[in-house]
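Key result, reporting period 2: structure in, sequence out.
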């Protein structure tokens, strides 16, 4: 049974102060400041320091397949899956086909990524990979993202570009009202996603630096895994903010 929600006053939401609907949407946050601002900053600094100052500790406890980094990735996407599922049951989402399709896509993608990060349970339970699957999976794991770039690099590049553009540029355009107040503006990430998107972009710049500078080393150990964590955090923060937007401004029809 779908959940039903009323207007801001009925739901007890406190509208954000602002001069326009666009500004109110842009200023919605996924939660308290420590969640969307301090947590990403603390994480990136901790990963940088531990990887460079304590490489043995990093290699033993953070980097392995069932280490802190990949387990956190799995946990974040599990939470994102739950949030997306809850959003899909929301009356204002379900009654709008365009928003239902968008949240449904987020749910499917979040579930897929969560499953892939744990190799659908192999990293946790520890079962052996069937021989026929070993022949097509370059990491001998029961997942799809090590089978073809179409299940790994290509979707990753799309998400990375979406985060950099949608997290660093579009929020400011949306806040200014240049994107209007229609469906597109409602789906644009809020300003609170900027810190996490900036970290994703920074890792991309670090990778470009490595490609241009022969002999240079990355600032992060297994930097692609570090970037994935912040990409997943961005997705989670986006979904949380979208849920809170429903209590601030009703989505357009």
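The corresponding designed sequence is given below.
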């Amino acid at each position: 049974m779908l959940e039903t929600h009323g207007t801001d006053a009925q739901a007890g939401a406190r509208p954000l102060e602002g001069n326009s609907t666009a500004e109110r949407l842009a200023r919605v946050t996924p939660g308290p400041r420590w969640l969307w601002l301090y947590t990403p900053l603390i994480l990136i600094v901790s990963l940088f320091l531990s990887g460079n100052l304590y490489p043995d500790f990093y290699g033993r406890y953070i980097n392995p397949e069932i280490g802190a980094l990949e387990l956190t990735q799995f946990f974040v996407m599990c939470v994102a899956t739950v949030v997306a599922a809850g959003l899909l049951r929301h009356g204002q989402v379900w009654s709008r086909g365009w928003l239902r399709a968008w949240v449904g896509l987020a749910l499917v993608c979040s579930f897929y990524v969560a499953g892939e990060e744990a190799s659908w349970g192999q990293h946790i339970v520890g079962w052996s990979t069937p021989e026929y699957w070993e022949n097509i999976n370059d990491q001998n794991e029961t997942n799809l993202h090590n089978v073809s770039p179409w299940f790994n690099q290509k979707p990753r590049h799309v998400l990375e570009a979406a985060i950099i553009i949608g997290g660093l540029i579009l929020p400011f355009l949306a806040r200014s009202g240049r994107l209007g107040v229609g469906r597109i503006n409602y789906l644009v990430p809020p300003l609170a996603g900027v810190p996490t998107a900036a970290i994703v972009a920074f890792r991309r710049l670090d990778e470009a630096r490595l490609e241009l500078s022969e002999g240079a080393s990355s600032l992060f150990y297994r930097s692609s895994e570090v970037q994935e964590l912040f990409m997943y955090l961005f997705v989670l923060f986006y979904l949380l903010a979208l849920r809170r937007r429903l209590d601030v401004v009703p989505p357009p029809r």
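The longest helix spans residues 223-245. DSSP finds 14 helices and no strands in the chain. This case is discussed further under Risks and Mitigation.
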